[in-house]
Amino acid sequence: MIKVVLISGSLRRGSVNSAALRAVRRIVGERREPTEVVSLPIGRIPFYDGDFEYARTTAAVRAARSLVAAADALVISTPSYNGAVPGVLKNALDWLSRPDGACALSGKAVAVLSASPGGRGAIDAQPALMDLLDACEAVVVEHPPVAIARAHERLDESGEMTEPDAVAELRSLVDATFEALRILGEQRASVAA
Questions:
Q1: Spans in the chain with pLDDT lower than 70
Q2: Would you identify the CATH topology of the domain 2-192?
Q3: What pLDDT is attached to residue 55?
Q4: Domain boundaries, the chain
Q5: How high is the pLDDT of residue 100?
Q6: Can you give the pLDDT at residue 50?
Q7: What integer pLDDT is reported at residue 57 of this predicted model?
Q8: Which of 19, 78, 95, 172 has the fewest CB atoms within 10 Å, counting from its CB?
Q9: How many CA atoms lie within 13 A of 170 on its CB side?
């Protein structure tokens, strides 16, 4: 079974990034491959503190690391806060990258997207997020940028992202993610052979 972890960089209840990830969940659920899709609630993770890391970690940090370590792929949706990823998302990635030599993100296929009520779709946050993932030795899924502009206008009455163009972009990103998993699987099989 393929396990996909969804991470929204926004904590807001009406987050358009969380709505985009709910659409991703529905799209993954339509695929033929047996899959499990879970969300990682990063708002429960405390601020990173190196002293605290070596003393002991919290249950939220242990659960996050375990969830990501067991995943085959991640899909991260980020808003842009002053042209960068939100601190809460950076904090979660910092915890997931620790301890040194045991990064839960290493070798994981990670798809990146962004959404915003603005006209640029928070695309300016994506390069920094990809740099962070690269530093964690994640495998960023190759795909044209998915930056959903005016995302609040793409939600239906119940707050779900159902607008056809947005869903088509998300579907294409999901397809690219599963293709990346196939390629990674083949590469790992050839190394093991």
A1: 54-56
A2: Rossmann fold (3.40.50)
A3: 64
A4: 2-192
A5: 81
A6: 82
A7: 77
A8: 172
A9: 29
